[in-house]
Amino acid sequence: MKITSVTPLPMRCLSANGPMTFFVVRIETDTGLVGFGESCDCFGISYPTVHAAVIRDAFAPLIIGETLDAVEPLITKIRRATRRELGESWASAQARSAIEIALWDLVGQEQRRSVSSLLGRVRDRIPVYAGSSPFLDDHPAEFHLKQLEPMLDRGVRHVKLRTGPRPDAAVDTLADLRRLLGHDIEMMVDASESLDLPTTARLSDRMAELDIRWLEEPLLQSRHRALAVAATRSRIPIASGEHLFSAEEASAALSAGEISVVQPDPCISGGIAEARQIAAMAAAFGVRAVLHYHAGLIGLGAVLQVAASAPDVDLLEYPIHLDTVLRTQSGSDDLGIAAIDDGCLALPDGPGLGVTLLQSAFDEGSFV
Questions:
Q1: pLDDT, position 359
Q2: Are residues 100 and 174 in the same domain?
Q3: Which residue among 114, 120, 229, 358 is least enclosed by CB atoms within 10 Å?
Q4: Residue 269: which domain range?
């Protein structure tokens, strides 16, 4: 099976929060098989045409005409050929993730097996946590409860809220929400790299009293010393991972004691194999591994294949507002909120990624 074309596809799609951009890559072969991959820039693709340029100008020429017998040799070729000019993080890693996922999709299709069955399938369902985007400090607790209700009604028992520009007010709202939810619901908080060390220490003390299970990304990912100090000082676990662009970066963060919950995402960290490696590495450090997700249908397909084949993963992020995107791109409720049962999402076992992106998603959403 030889690769005949690599086509970057920057897209727009309407989410429950408004229009969002996405980035998908399509790889065609001389056998007629077509594979899809997707990348993520951690909170929706803001610059999909940048990813398109990286793939079109740098990555595609390296693999067009190559025989696809295995994924790793082609990804290694891309990394070695471009690391000195493009680096191995940020846009380069995200674009490479999309290529790697598409290659796995093709390998699975050729063998008529799911990617997870090729890697070693360990489960058929995964618990999810509701990711809610509105800032805690922008609305009262009753508003946030209403946002969460569609997933709570599906048996979801894990929720993540976000702090905004007034983090102390956010924790006030969090306390009110804890009273409304009770203590049967596991609650987490995402600070989106917006805090400093003193604020992290103060808020983590308050959050510990509310039984918050982790504080996500309190500081910029690049401030490694500060993160290590925060992790030592905090009374609740520090979570991070959506800005880890390789197993090597994850190893450095884990070795430095920066995080207690690691959140790999195959659409960011270099692909399916790299995300599985990070999850396995976490177990050796006694760190919890949960999966980050914030992309479209193809990205969810990749995350679900990791969830199905990574025994050390115990939870998957499910952003509430992406339900609209998933239904639009698939034409069904198969992976929407309505598909969640008893707090879990079933893991697809069709060939490759096990998901199919509608042609209309390109016709209506592609950049011109």
A1: 87
A2: no
A3: 120
A4: 118-346
Q: Sort 182 into a burial class: Cβ within 10 Å, 0-12 / 13-18 / 19+.
A: exposed
Q: Is residue 351 part of a domain?
A: no
pLDDT, residue 195, reads: 97
Task: Give the burial class of 166: count Cβ atoms within 10 A of its Cβ; 0-12 exposed, 13-18 middle, 19 or more buried.
Answer: middle
Quick one: how many helices (H) and strands (E) in the chain? 14, 12
**Could you tell me the pTM of the whole model?**
0.97
Same domain, 325 and 181: yes
Q: Could you report how far apart the first and last alpha carbons of the chain are, in Å?
A: 31
Query: For residue 353, is it within any domain?
Result: no
pLDDT at 365: 52
The encoded tokens of residue 227 equal: 């993160």
DSSP H helical ranges for 156-296: 167-181, 197-209, 224-233, 247-255, 272-284
- φ and ψ at 175, to 5 degrees? -65, -40
- Report helix angle 167-181 to 197-209, nearest 10: 10
Residue-wise burial string across 84-93, b where 16 or more C-beta atoms lie within 10 A, e elsewhere: eebebbebbb
* Short-list 102, 108, 124, CA closest to 308: 124
* 286 assigned to some structural domain: yes
Helix (H/G/I), strand (E/B), else coil: 169: helix
H/E stretch holding 111 = helix 90-111
CATH number of the structural domain spanning residue 174: 3.20.20.120
Average confidence (pLDDT) per 10 residues, the chain, 368 residues: 97 92 97 97 78 97 98 98 95 97 98 98 98 98 98 98 98 98 97 96 98 97 94 97 94 96 97 98 96 97 98 98 96 97 98 94 58
5 SS3 class: strand
Long-range (24+ apart) CB contacts under 8 A made by 283-288 are 283/312, 285/254, 285/255, 287/254, 287/259, 287/260, 287/261, 287/262, 288/237, 288/260, 288/261, 288/262, 288/314
| pLDDT score of 45 | 67
